[in-house]
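ok trying again, last paste got cut off:
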Amino acid sequence: MRVAVVGATGFQGGAVARLLAERKHRVRTLTRRPEGERPALAGTAFVNGDLAHADHVRHLFERATHASVVMPLVYDAETVGAYARNIADAARETGVRRVVYNSNTRVPRASTDVAAFETRRLAETVLREGLRGSDVELVVLRPPVYLDNLFSPWNGPALAKEGVLAYPLPAATRTAWISHRDLAEAVYAALTVDGVAGRTLDIGGSRSLTGHELAQAFARGLGRDVRYVPLDPHVFEEGLARVVGPVAAAGVAGIYHYLASGAGPDLMAADDGAAGALSVRPAPVDEWVARQPWQIWSDEATAAS
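nice, full thing came through this time. structure:
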């Protein structure tokens, strides 16, 4: 395949680009970053440009056979809608065979006032309408929450040193946690397997876990006691704002405010048969945990002291 990967400079799109390159497919992505600030993506060609410019997106899609799309951390409806229209137009005009759109989150059935849900619902709608009547197939994947969020400077040290797993989900909320790598496997399958064109699939891990069950899985993977601590979404948002800015942080945190309110208690749970349709088997949480180099957080803490 020759795959246009929209969002490859981010964590999710980057995981997709790496997997495709590992399997010897040709990968291109769009970026506004100067050469010295681009992530290390072996096997990926960078195209200078911006999703807001239709000609830039079309250039990215030229000679592509497939496309993988995840939107950046932008939650303005007009902007996201324009991005999606440019992607749909480019896919139609260049004759891409299939587009896989990762919505970056599950999306409630009913409309909400949460921009993180509604802009992703909008992008899906615009893509469907823009590709209707063409030969371009669309597959939509809706993931829950990423395990990689927990292997981070915000969670890693507390897990490695103190056995504390703090996250802005209520302890009772069942979540089918998935890793970026298993997301990439799902995207790869959605790009290649038969029988999924036109479908929207809720992908996720093999089990849905409460916060305390998640802590137990981490305890097995780490070989130490771990306790789950529900983090106030406001505290989470304030910390995230220092990294990505207040606007993007408010967009991301909107998901956690929604879940903390008690709305959509099963939104992030299980899947809708996606694993069978895609023939993927996400790794159990404890196995994923055991594979991560947690020692780096202990080493960093030691070096800092």
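cool. Strands lie at 2-6, 26-31, 44-48, 66-70, 98-102, 137-142, 164-167, 200-202, 227-230. Residues 147-176+206-269+281-298 form a domain with the Rossmann fold fold (CATH 3.40.50.720).
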